[in-house]
Amino acid sequence: MDVNWFPGHMAKTLREMRDQVKLVDLVIETCDARIPESSRNPELDRLLGQKPRILVLNKADLADPNQTAKWLNYYQQKNIPVLAAEGNRRASLDPLRKLIIAMNQHKIDNAKAKGRLIRPIRVMVAGIPNTGKSTIINALTGKKAAITADRPGVTRTAKWAKSGTELELLDTPGVLWPKLGSPSSQRRLAASGAIKDDVLPLEEIAMEVLFDLSHDYPELIMNRYKLEQLAIEPLTLMEDACRKRGCILSGNRLDLTRFAVLFLDELRGGKIGRITLERPER
Ligand SMILES: Nc1nc2c(ncn2[C@@H]2O[C@H](COP(=O)(O)OP(=O)(O)OP(=O)(O)O)[C@@H](O)[C@H]2O)c(=O)[nH]1
Ligand SMILES: [Mg+2]
């Protein structure tokens, strides 16, 4: 894949975040629970330094719960504070709110002991595009102030929001990094919806991801595309699924482009089932 996923505004956002991070007590790093490793931006490590951080595996409702449990364990082993969440379900964020407060309790106690005013805890929400940063902020504040949509690049400028008297949250635009990981990691990122579709080779991505899923979740793929068996060759598998799904042009030619768009849409929307594209042990 040779695509431009690092437009100028992302570099600018990273520069701005470098200044903003000095103002906050803690950072929430959102990633996509279906690709917990590929959806973490290594630039954030450099930028955030030693700033306390909570990793949120968001969109957990779309991920395979068994794999999410393994990923949580994996990050806990690395002493990274981590939670699974469903940004669009407010109650699922209660543990996050509690953890933010617990990680800052010493500052609250300190202010109390000195008879000072307790100021709100300042939290930056950062992560790659389309991982639910703005959705989480709306859920925590109980307002729909931040615009959200199922495409990358929705939030264009950083913005503060208040959650009661306890928290101040900084929504930031999603950022990728110039040298994304391995080709398969890039494909998973693309499939998750983190990169703008118009710069992507959608057929290639759909073919490879469908093929991977046919190994990890054979029943889900057979059921969704009404396949009696799964071809062992990626293109043949995609052609079989394309035919069954009725993506056919005049002269009985297969419309692989239409199938790729449809498949990625179904995958992103959770219609194939709860799937995780990466496993911690691999
Ligand atoms: N199924 C599901 N969808 C979610 C969840 N969290 C967010 N979404 C959806 O994911 C899409 C992206 O959410 P946003 O909050 O706009 O993501 P963002 O990280 O702010 O994206 P950028 O501003 O582009 O960086 C929206 O359609 C949300 O409704 C979740 O936990 N589960
Ligand atoms: Mg946003």
**Number of DSSP strand runs:** 6
Which segments are poorly predicted (pLDDT under 50) over 5 or more consecutive residues? none
Mean pLDDT: 95
Helix content: 40-55%
**Bound ligands:** guanosine-5'-triphosphate, magnesium ion
Radius of gyration (CA) equals 20 Å
- CATH architecture type of the largest domain: 3-Layer(aba) Sandwich
CATH superfamily of the largest domain: P-loop containing nucleotide triphosphate hydrolases
CA distance, first residue to last residue: 22 Å
Number of domains: 2
What is the SS-derived class? alpha/beta
Query: The CATH topology of the largest domain, please?
Result: Rossmann fold
Principal-axis shape equals elongated
Order of strands in the sheet with the most strands?
A: 3-2-1-4-6-5
Number of alpha- plus pi-helical segments: 10
Query: What order do the helices and strands follow?
Result: HEHEHEHEHEEHHHHH
Main pleated sheet? 6 strands, mixed
Please, could you describe this protein's structure?
The protein is α/β, with parallel strands linked by helices and 282 residues long. 42% of the residues lie in helices and 12% in strands. A 6-stranded mixed sheet has the order 3-2-1-4-6-5, with helices on both faces. Strand 1, helix 2 and strand 2 form a beta-alpha-beta unit. Helix 7 packs across helix 8. Magnesium ion is lined by residues 133-134, 154-155, 171.
